[in-house]
Specification:
The protein has about 150 residues and is an alpha/beta fold. It has a domain of about 90 residues: PH-domain like (Roll). It is about 40% helix and about 25% strand. It contains four helices and seven strands, in the order ααββββββαβα. The strands form two sheets. Strands 1-5-4-3-2 form a five-stranded mixed sheet. Strands 6-7 form a two-stranded parallel sheet.
């Protein structure tokens, strides 16, 4: 029987109830920690894979930009091919897929220079931002995850 079931069926006033609740809390905390460490390891492996496939990048090692938070594809206005974006803690990396899975570096934007809005872009609205601010607009699920992270 799991600790949750024991807590559920144990008499609240009985001796040892608090110990069982504490044990359940500790076990839940350990499970969350294990899941978090596994996720961080998977992201670190993915960052190394991206680094090995990235062609034309002359910046620092990608691990210096923090954890990989999200990735996805999008079509850039006026571009024929899809772009692949990788959002790190401190940088948005934009690449173009080439033959044999190679990722061609296109550009990067430091996250401190990104503003996200669901509003349509308006020239009057632009006056409140500095010239080095990049504005991202959209409503897709991936973009919504980016907003929650930003």
């Amino acid at each position: 029987m799991s600790l949750q079931n024991i807590v559920k069926h144990y008499v609240y006033e009985a001796e040892g109830y608090k110990d069982i609740v504490d044990a359940l809390s500790a076990m839940t905390g350990i499970a969350h920690h294990i899941n978090n460490m596994k996720r961080r390891h998977e992201h670190a492996v993915r960052v190394q894979e991206i680094q090995s496939l990235l062609y034309g990048w002359e910046g620092e090692d990608l691990t210096t930009f923090g954890e990989l938070c999200a990735e996805g594809t999008f079509r850039m206005y006026g571009a024929k091919a899809l772009r692949h974006a990788f959002l790190f803690d401190r940088m948005l990396l934009i690449t173009k897929k080439k033959e044999e899975g190679i990722l061609g570096y296109k550009t990067h934007i430091m996250v401190s220079h990104v503003f996200y809005t669901k509003l349509y872009w308006d020239a009057a609205y632009a006056e409140q931002f500095s010239s080095d601010t990049h504005v991202v607009t959209g409503t897709a699920a991936w973009e919504t995850r980016v907003v929650k992270w930003l």
